[in-house]
Amino acid sequence: MIKIITVLGVLILCSASLIISCTKGSQDVLGVNSCDTTSVQYGADIVPILQANCYRCHGNGNTGGSGGVLLEGYPNLQKWANNGFLAGNVSHAPGYIGMPYGQPKLSGCTVNKIVAWVNQGAKDN
Predict the structure, then answer these.
(1) Count of domains forming the chain
(2) Cα separations in angstroms, 8 against 1, 11, 14, 101
(3) Quick one: DSSP state of residue 13?
(4) Which of 6, 16, 107, 118 has its Cα between 20 and 30 A from that of 82?
């Protein structure tokens, strides 16, 4: 009888741990706050990220203190996407300057969308 109670207790604890980890640590598993990177669009996904996080330094001709990097407008961004700097900088990869400069790293989903867009050909869509 004690073995049955012990086994049931272990099963209950494992189930509770699984439920908690799926709802708190990885909400994507349950479809909550999912991060879809299967078809990232320049206009719908990337531009809003850049507007919120990059354009204050790398937009509207603000290239004086930004190393001459202009990200506003597809032709400007395409250069940095194609040479690997965009993905390297936003993902804080070794050998790159983490962006946004002096700020916390962008959320995992945001970085994943940028990297996915670059890996999907950095299309102007």
Answers:
(1) 2
(2) 11, 5, 10, 52
(3) H
(4) 107
Burial class from Cβ neighbours inside 10 Å (0-12, 13-18, 19+) for residue 22 reads: middle
Query: Domain check: are 47 and 101 in the same one?
Result: yes
Buried b or exposed e, range 83-122, using 16+ CB within 10 angstroms: eebbbbbbbeeeeeebbbeeeeebeeebbbbbbbbbeeeb
48 and 76 together in one domain:
yes
Supply the pLDDT for residue 5: 53
**What six digits make up the tokens of 72?**
């506003």
| Rounded Cα gap, residues 116 and 113, in angstroms | 5
The residue range of the domain holding 50 is 42-119
Residue 125 domain flag? no
Confidence class of residue 19 from pLDDT cuts 50, 70 and 90? very low
- Does 79 reside within a domain? yes
In a domain, residue 46? The reply is yes
pLDDT in tens, 51-87: 999 999 999 877 667 888 999 999 999 999 999 999 9
Residue 59 resides in a domain? yes
